[in-house]
Amino acid sequence: EVVLxxxxxxxxxxxxxxxTLSCRASQSVSSTYLAWHQQKPGQAPRLLIHGSSRRxxxxxxxxxxxxxxxxxxxxISRLEPEDYALYFCQLYTTAPTWTFGQxxxxxxx
Amino acid sequence: QLQESGxxxxxxSETLALTCSVSGDTIAGYYWTWLxxxxxKGPEWIAYVTYRGSGYNPSLKSRVSISVDTSNTQFSLRMxxxxxxxxxxxxxxxxxxxxxxALDIWGPGTKVTVSS
Lengths: 109, 116
Known about the structure:
With 109 residues, chain A is mainly β. In chain A, 0% of the residues lie in helices and 58% in strands.
């Protein structure tokens, strides 16, 4: 079973700053199946990035994903007020199963 | 679109029954899933169903079953022997991208509290 570990637990940043979120897999995984979600209080997760680096429909280009193997990154450039939220990485395996990291909270500094 | 429905409050040791209604599509082809999320944690995948069959999270397999309604517009989850640890928001979800299979279509979730 692959475990996804996200860091840091919390990021405190000001609007306009950039955020770098990390997701580490316990073993090498296919970048095709690595995704990132955003979740705001009281809402379901919203897909931001899939295939490690492809933005989902309607996602602004300030969100970008990268990585391969065991290390993946979500970058949010120029934080907007609506970007303060929880972010989860998600892995699909061909078993099939879906696994999530424990999340990184981006909060207002 | 997906919409969960369920009892809200369940007594310990009882059985939970949830339904996900699918609008604008039928249950064919892709995987249709149930997940849950406890406060402060990432979502936990519970089970999937497709026209070919179903699969379960090994940690929950002994207590869970998933099924599809004969109309192919609803799928359901049953979870037995509930405890307080099963208190969570339960979501149904699926994906639109067959190559990445990232979950991008979610219901709003239904809160389930296990308490006497």
